[in-house]
Every structure is written in C-alpha cells, then in structure tokens.
TrEMBL record:
<feature type="domain" description="Ribonucleotide reductase large subunit C-terminal">
    <location>
        <begin position="157"/>
        <end position="692"/>
    </location>
</feature>
<keyword id="KW-0237">DNA synthesis</keyword>
<dbReference type="InterPro" id="IPR013344">
    <property type="entry name" value="RNR_NrdJ/NrdZ"/>
</dbReference>
<keyword id="KW-0846">Cobalamin</keyword>
<dbReference type="InterPro" id="IPR000788">
    <property type="entry name" value="RNR_lg_C"/>
</dbReference>
<keyword id="KW-1015">Disulfide bond</keyword>
<feature type="domain" description="TSCPD">
    <location>
        <begin position="730"/>
        <end position="834"/>
    </location>
</feature>
<dbReference type="InterPro" id="IPR024434">
    <property type="entry name" value="TSCPD_dom"/>
</dbReference>
<dbReference type="Pfam" id="PF02867">
    <property type="entry name" value="Ribonuc_red_lgC"/>
</dbReference>
<dbReference type="InterPro" id="IPR050862">
    <property type="entry name" value="RdRp_reductase_class-2"/>
</dbReference>
<keyword id="KW-0547">Nucleotide-binding</keyword>
<dbReference type="InterPro" id="IPR013678">
    <property type="entry name" value="RNR_2_N"/>
</dbReference>
<dbReference type="Pfam" id="PF08471">
    <property type="entry name" value="Ribonuc_red_2_N"/>
</dbReference>
<comment type="similarity">
    <text>Belongs to the ribonucleoside diphosphate reductase class-2 family.</text>
</comment>
<protein>
    <recommendedName>
        <fullName>Vitamin B12-dependent ribonucleotide reductase</fullName>
        <ecNumber>1.17.4.1</ecNumber>
    </recommendedName>
</protein>
<keyword id="KW-0170">Cobalt</keyword>
<feature type="domain" description="Ribonucleotide reductase class II vitamin B12-dependent N-terminal">
    <location>
        <begin position="46"/>
        <end position="136"/>
    </location>
</feature>
Length: 939
C-alpha cells in the first residue's frame, strides 16, 4: 500500500518538484527483520561444462544461495551475473552481494532524487525489493545485473531503437551505433524507409543503391561483433515500410539466401547453424519485418492495388497488386520465417507521444516500440508467485508488488548510462519503461485453464490490465512527487486519450469466473484512479509495459514458462546438486490435477504416465475434456497457431508496447495458412506478429546426425540369421501366486521361475471354469510362457501390454498399482515389479508405491533435499541421472528441448547454445539456453 504525500506538479510544469515523497508500507517484509535472515542459506559449487567435448566453461566453488533456489538458477546467476574476476577477492560469491549491489544503488538514487518521504520509507523500499528478488518474485533485465553498482557504465536498458536518414553520414553512423550496442551486450532495431529506393535518383544524377544494399554491410558488422564480448551473435531488427519501392526486394532477401543455403548444403558445404560455411550467407543476423498500414491491409481485403511512394517527394512511383504483395510476404515467411509483420495503424493509434514523432521501428524482439533513438529497461514478475493456496490469483498482492517494481524501474533512469547521446536524451525526456511478466502458461495450467480457452484469455487479459493500470497509476503518483516526463506537456492530450482507451478495453473483458472477475474489478479501479491522478499531475513515464521474452531472467526466477508463452513441454530436464540430472514432470501438472478435482492416487498415476510418455493423451483416469489444460507449445497436443494469436490479442490492449512472441506453425502449414495468421493479426489489433514453420530452415542442429542416419540406412549390411532355442523349466521350480482385483473383476496370477530367478511361465485364472474368457486367458498364458522360454525378454512384453485400455479397468487392490487401464495392464506391471530390476523399470516408468512417494515428496513439497535424492536415485520413479540414464537414447538429452525431441521422435527447430552446446528452447521471438542462460535475443 502506498500513498503520495503532497499535491505534486502541474501537468505542464515538468521541472517542478514537490517537497514530499512517497510514503510506503511493508508488504512482504517484517519490520526489524532483514529479508536475508528469514531464509536458510547453503554453499554450492558451480561447475558448468560443454557436454560435447567435456571442457569446463565456468567454475566457481563455494557460492552462497538460498536452499530453495534450483541448481539451474544458481548456475546461471553465478556464471552470468556475479561480477569480478573468478578466483580473486573481488569476485562476488553470494547472492546477497549481487542483490545488495543492485538494490543499494537504486535506493541511493531514490534518496538523491527525492522519491520517498523519509528514511523509513527508503528502508522499506530497500527491504521489499530485496525480499522480492531473493524469493524470485521478479527480476530486472540482464543489463541491470551486468552493470549496476559496478565500475562499468550503468547501462540498464536491453532494448534500443535507432534511426537512419538518407545520407551516407547517417548510414555510416548507423553501423557505428549498432556496433557499440552489440558490444555492450544488447540489441537494436531501426526502420530503413527513409533511405531512397534503387528506383530513385541521387542529386548527382546516379541511381540510389537502396536500403537492401546497405543492409549487407550492417549484417556483416553484426555477424562479426559478438554481443558483450561473449559467444552469442548480435540481435537486430530491420523494418521497411510496405509502401517503399524496394519492398519486394526486401521481402525476398532472406528467402533467397535460404535457397542459396540449400544449394551449398547439397554441394557438401557445412551450412548447419554455426557451421564453417554459414557465414558466407547474407542477412542472417537480423529479424526482418514489414511495417504495413491500415490502407494496405484494406487493399488486401478489398483486392485493390496499392501505391509505392518515393522517399523524398512522396509521389507514387508505381502501383502494385496488394494481394500479390501480401502473398509474397506470406510465401517468404513460409519459406524462411521472415519477414514478420508490424501493424503501423494500431501501433501509432496507441502512441502516447505522437506530437514528438511517429513510432517507426521496434527492438529486435518486437516488444519495445516507441520513438527513434530511444531505449527501454525491462523487469518481469513471476505470476506463479501470486497464486493463493485456495487456487485464486491474489490481485491486491500483485498490485502492491507492481508498485515497488515500477518505482524502481523509473529510479534507474536517474543514474543510467546510454550507448549514444541521442538515446540518452530521448530516454531521459520520455522515461520509457517495460514492466512485464513470466510464467503465464504455468499460471493458467496451475489454475486449471487451457491456454487456448476463453477463461484463460480472460484471466490473462485481466492480469495484464491490472499490471499496466497500476503502473500508470504509480507513474501519475511519481509525477506528483518528482514531475512528469519532460515530453508530457506537448503530448498531454494524446497521452490521456491512450489511458482512456486502456480503461475502455478493460471494461470489455468478458469474465468467466470469480477469479478473473475480481482481477478485472481491481484493474478498473486502478485505471480510474490513474486517469484522475494523471489529469492533475501528468505521468512520469511515456510508456509503462511490454511483454518481453524473459529468457535468462526467467531461468533466474525458476519459471516454467517464459513471457506470454504456453508451457514448452510437460517433462522437464532438471539438474541436481552435486552434478547429474533427472527428468521430472512439470510441477504445475499435479497442481492442476488437484484443482481439477483428481484424488492423490489418480494424480500419481497420471504423473507417472506423463513421465513415461511426455503427454497426457490416454493417461489413466484423466477425462478427455481436461486434455486441453495440458496442451503445450510442442508435442502430441500442441496449441494451434490461432490459439497463440488469440492469446496475444487478449493481452495486447493492456500493453504500452507490444509482445515478443513467435507463432509456431506445423511443417504441413500452407502459404494460405500464413496469410490467414498475418491477416487475423491485423484484424485482432496486434502490433506485431511473426511466424515460424517447423523445419522451414536448412541449418538445423541435427542435420548432420540425420545425414549420418541416412548414410547408415543405405549402407549394405551382412545378414546373419539367428534361430531361438527353447529353454525349458525344470520339473521343480520356484513360483508365486498373486490374487488381484481390477475394476471389480477378481483373478489369480501364477508365475513360475527358473532356479536362477528368471521368469519362465505364467498362468492367469480369470472368469468361470469353462467360460470363453477363461479359455482365452489359458491360451494367452501358454503363448507368453513359450515366448519367455524362447528368450523373449519380459521387458518387451511389459512394454507391449502395459497401458492397454479395455474393460474391466479401474481401481485395484494392489497398493503398488492403484489404477489399471485393463487386466493386461495390471498383470504385466505387476510382473515388472516382481521380476525386473530397478534400472529396467526406470526405462519403462514402472515403480512401487514407496518409490513414487519418495519422488513426490522430493519434488512436490516434501522434506527430502536434492542431495539426498541425488545419492539415493533408487527412490526416484521418474529420475534419469546422468550416470544412470533411462536408456541409451535419453542419455543424449541435456535440456528440456532435447528431452522433448526424444519423446516426439523428431528434431526441434531451435539452435544449439554456442556456450554449452545444448539445444535452446523458444523464449518469445528469441531462444534461451536453460543450461547456461545464454539467449539469442537482446535480453
């Protein structure tokens, strides 16, 4: 809870400051108790290797972290964010040092610039920020952790927009500025539409080169300069207006290069990602987007032509068929995923500062859109931290957290450094912020909502509206304390109009249950309060919110999902303390099952099934109408492309900027499908949209392996014929009889063994003597027995007959197998438990009740620590330690993306991490490595 003390400054007098500051109250912390004293700390060793060659990428031992932080978050924060040379006394060795370095810098700046009423409020501000960072409630973007509180420049922004004019000096300066930004570890975007086309004349009488030609030089520069001196390439966005005379050439640039890649690959060149010869191909270091206008989209809709205009005079140089041009964009995107689409009409219709210039470009991931030569610092909240024990979203708590975060973000602009003076001037004048969130997909699943559902979209829209509404309300309060942004006076009317548009969109949210209704109601109050305060004070910030990829910081917060994305998969690759790894079922799955009303026994059975299969289809006891709750980005039940678009449309009216997201499409998608996605994006009011069709690019990480497999298939093999020999049981042999009940049907299983303890025969008694069922079971038993005696492994039978579904099915009287999908399912799971060693049962996903309980205790709220789990792997039903892999193939998995490839039986279109070699996973419009935290984007 916060209050503003003092009347504040008038809207048009941005330089005036009030004498009093903000008065704040504690939310998460307790007076007299420091946040660090509330948690248990432990020392850990961080050793990160490249699994391909075994080389050590990073090593720091004895680092201090809270016990509840995952190994993955520990590794990423230690390797990415701790400052100082490793092995020296100056090197940070504790999370406390990292948080203090950042938070104390923010508090010092807040005190210097008069943000708070007194020392007590400053202490509360410090403790609340510390508590939220410590408990992974939110995180600043990576540049804050890199730079704040160090001897380096205090760069806090990850997103930059540049500008280029139609002069050689400006073009060369563009190359220089991009290089500086890439060197600093960030990315930039710009619009090239001011540059004359290749169809226009120069003042000297010659013909202009056109923007596409200048893109070559910038692309080569970006490919040479690696971000931050590290190993990932630069991130950049290039935009061209749809009415530029060179638009067709621009659209075709990357598609044409993709054709070149295919030819070179077929000729034997190494064209894989990071291959030795890929650098010979152009335009691979930027995302390309076409800026389309409402006029053009209406021409597409009506089937009319559209004029391409000269850059200097604005006259129409030629007219083109709008539908044909639109089809060309869709075809190019179908072939190589570029260009994306930016909808100029919607972008500038929601522009708070139109009097200061149009919005013509975006950052590389498309979430930040504002004036040229500007920047935006980001922070994201972990939505799953605001779910109450009763299964509701705690909107009041979320609002209080947003207040503190958005205040800190604005404070950072007071001390921040910027890569160029024009960017510094614009950012200080307009103070653009980008608060956002992560874990939306996990939140919806945990609350029992399908990602592609009306209820899911209603809750997502309400939460987003509340976040931005609170942010602007706090921005208006800050304007009353330290003054509105300098450019507000000139743009006051437009800014107020956009605020009213946000508030009106909030009232249009159709609620479906008490949860989203409560969030929307609070959002309505916040918008009204903000508009009233802003009318008196103005606003401190021209922009408040974006939805960023949250790649590295998402891992820092231990989020299951990034940004606005759905869950990537239901199985996760988890690292363990002391080394090793394990496969676990996403922790939101059992949480969602309990919300949906399933009992503990049913939850155990479904979780066990998911661990084995990677999806919920045909999971025992799971009702088909609940399948959609567990739909993911990839897998057997992947979310349809329009499901992603509809979610973006649900939250876009409540975002100041835009949304970093790529709509994944199946390989079977057509050019017409891409056209429909791009057209519906315009109709639904999105600001930007990009698609990626599965396997549309040649340079895939597994192409070399596929080539070897193809070569192996064509290689002639020597045929050797083997004949099985029956090994009969002795006259006297050990045996056991088990009585069982499946779905009310009673029976007996008699199993005979060889003296050396190998199963050799079974007899099943089920049904009345002389009945057809009893006869069939006798014949089946003899068939299995003969097969066992001829050397067919028991695990083969178990894999074939377990999980068969037919009646009778249901509850059993066996404590180790609570639910069976059929008698066959029960019999062979029982035989596996009695006769197969644990290592083989791990591969089959079959475990005793004690083993399942130990795993649930370890992963879903019990007291067993990860070290105990690591050293007692036999207690883990879904574990696959690095030293004891589930199978020879699963030993090849080193990330969640690679794990899903094994479940799906196909390669994922994602790059390999250049640092640790593992398969990255999608994060917004970018990719992020869950092994080391590296990203392919600008955050």
């Amino acid at each position: 809870m916060t209050e503003t003390v003092g009347t504040g400054a008038a809207a048009g007098r941005s330089k005036k400051k009030a004498t009093n500051g903000l008065s704040v109250q504690r939310v998460f912390t307790t007076e007299g108790v420091h946040p660090y004293d509330e948690v248990a700390w432990e020392k850990r060793d961080v050793v990160m290797t490249n699994w391909r060659d075994g080389s050590v990428n990073f090593e720091q031992r004895g680092v201090e972290f809270p016990e509840f932080w995952s190994v993955n978050a520990t590794n990423i924060v230690t390797s990415k964010y701790f400052r100082g040379a490793v092995g020296t006394a100056q090197r940070e060795g504790s999370l406390k040092q990292l948080i203090d370095r950042v938070v104390k810098t923010y508090v010092g700046a807040a005190a210097k610039h008069g943000y708070f009423a007194g020392p007590a409020d400053l202490e509360i501000f410090e403790h609340e920020l510390t508590w939220m960072l410590l408990h992974q409630v939110f995180s600043f973007n990576s540049p804050v952790w890199f730079n704040v509180g160090t001897s380096s420049k205090q760069q806090v922004s990850a997103c930059f927009i540049l500008a280029v004019d139609d002069t050689m000096e400006s073009i060369l300066n563009w190359y220089r500025e991009e290089g500086l930004i890439f060197k600093g570890g960030s990315g930039a975007g710009l619009n090239l539409s001011r540059i004359r086309s290749s169809k226009e004349l120069l003042s000297s009488g010659g013909t202009a080169s056109g923007p596409v030609s200048f893109m070559r030089g910038a692309d080569a520069s970006a490919g040479t300069i690696k971000s931050g001196g590290a190993t990932r390439r630069a991130a950049k966005m290039v935009v061209l207006d749809v009415d530029h005379p060179d638009i067709e050439e621009f659209i075709a640039t990357k598609a044409r290069e993709e054709e070149k890649i295919k030819v070179l690959r077929d000729a034997g060149f190494d064209m894989d990602l990071s291959g030795a010869d890929i650098s010979s191909v152009q335009y691979q270091n930027a995302n390309n987007s076409v800026r389309v206008t409402d006029e053009f989209m209406q021409a597409v809709e009506n089937g009319t032509d559209f004029g391409l205009r000269a850059r200097l005079t604005g006259e129409v140089l030629e007219r083109t068929d709008a539908k044909k041009l639109f089809r060309g964009m869709a075809k190019a995107a179908w072939e190589c995923a570029d260009p994306g689409m930016q909808y100029d009409g919607t972008i500038n219709d929601w522009h708070t500062c139109p009097e200061s210039g149009r919005i013509s470009a975006s950052n590389p991931c498309s979430e930040y859109m504002h004036l040229d030569n500007s920047s935006c610092n980001l922070a994201s909240l972990n939505l799953l931290k605001f779910v109450s024990e009763d299964g509701t979203f705690d909107a009041p708590l979320f609002a209080k957290a947003v207040e503190f975060v958005i205040t800190a973000m604005d404070v950072s602009i007071c001390f921040a450094d910027f890569p160029t003076e024009p960017i510094a001037e614009t950012t200080r004048k307009f103070r653009q912020l980008g608060i956002g969130y992560a874990n939306l997909g996990a939140l919806l699943m945990a609350l029992g909502h399908a990602y592609d559902s009306e209820g899911g979209r209603a809750l997502a829209g309400a939460i987003t509206s509340l976040m931005t509404g609170v942010s602007y309300r706090r921005s208006a309060e800050l304007a009353g304390v330290v003054g509105p942004y300098e450019g507000y006076a000139r743009n006051a009317e437009a800014h107020q109009q956009v605020m009213r548009k946000h508030a009106a969109a909030n009232e249009l949210i159709r609620t479906h249950h008490s949860n989203d209704a409560a969030v929307r109601a609070l959002a309505s109050q916040e918008w009204q309060r903000g508009i009233e305060l802003g009318g008196r004070n103005g606003w401190r910030n021209a922009q408040a919110s974006v939805l960023a990829p949250t790649g590295t910081i998402g891992f820092m917060m231990d989020c299951d999902t990034t940004g606005v994305e759905p869950d990537f998969s239901l199985v996760k690759f988890k690292k363990l303390v002391g080394g090793g790894s394990m496969q676990i079922v996403n922790q939101t799955v059992p949480r969602a099952l309990h919300v949906l009303g399933y009992q503990d026994e049913q939850v155990e059975a479904i979780v066990e099934y998911v661990a084995q299969h990677g999806h919920v289809v045909d999971a025992p006891g799971l009702r088909p109408e609940h399948y959609e709750v567990f739909d993911c980005a990839v897998g057997d039940r992947s979310i349809a492309p329009m499901g992603h678009v509809r979610m973006m449309a649900a939250v876009q009216p409540f975002i100041s900027g835009a949304i970093s997201k790529t709509v994944n499409m199946p390989e079977s998608a057509t050019v017409e499908d891409v056209e429909e996605i791009y057209f519906q994006g315009w109709k639904l009011g999105l600001k930007a949209l990009a698609i990626y069709r599965d396997n549309c690019k040649v340079g895939q990480p597994l192409s070399t392996a596929k080539k070897k497999e193809a070569e192996a298939e064509t290689e002639a093999e020597k045929v050797v014929e083997y004949r099985p020999v029956r090994r009969r049981l002795p006259k006297k042999r050990p045996s056991q009889t088990v009585s069982f009940t499946v779905g009310g049907a009673e029976g007996y299983l008699h199993a005979g063994s060889y003296p050396d303890d190998g199963l050799g025969e079974i007899f099943v008694k089920l049904g009345k003597q002389g009945s057809t069922l009893a006869g069939v079971m006798d014949a089946f038993s003899m068939s299995i027995s003969v097969g066992l005696q001829h050397g067919i492994p028991l695990e083969f039978y178990v894999s074939k007959f377990s999980n068969l579904r037919f009646e009778p099915a249901g509850m059993t009287d066996d404590p180790d197998i609570r639910i069976a999908t059929s008698v066959m399912d029960y019999l062979f799971r029982r035989l596996a438990l009695d006769y197969l060693p644990y290592e083989k049962r791990v591969q089959l996903g079959i475990f005793t009740a004690d083993e399942r309980s130990a795993e649930v205790e370890a992963n879903y709220g019990g007291t067993m620590d990860l070290e105990a789990l690591r050293t007692s792997v036999d207690s883990s039903p879904v574990a696959a330690r690095a030293g004891k892999p589930e199978s020879e193939t699963e030993a090849d998995a080193h990330s969640t993306a690679e794990l899903m490839e094994l479940h799906l039986g196909k390669a994922a279109d994602a790059p390999l991490c250049m640092t640790c070699g593992t398969k990255m996973r999608p994060a917004g419009s970018c990719y992020a490595c869950e092994g080391c935290g590296a990203t392919s984007g600008c955050s």
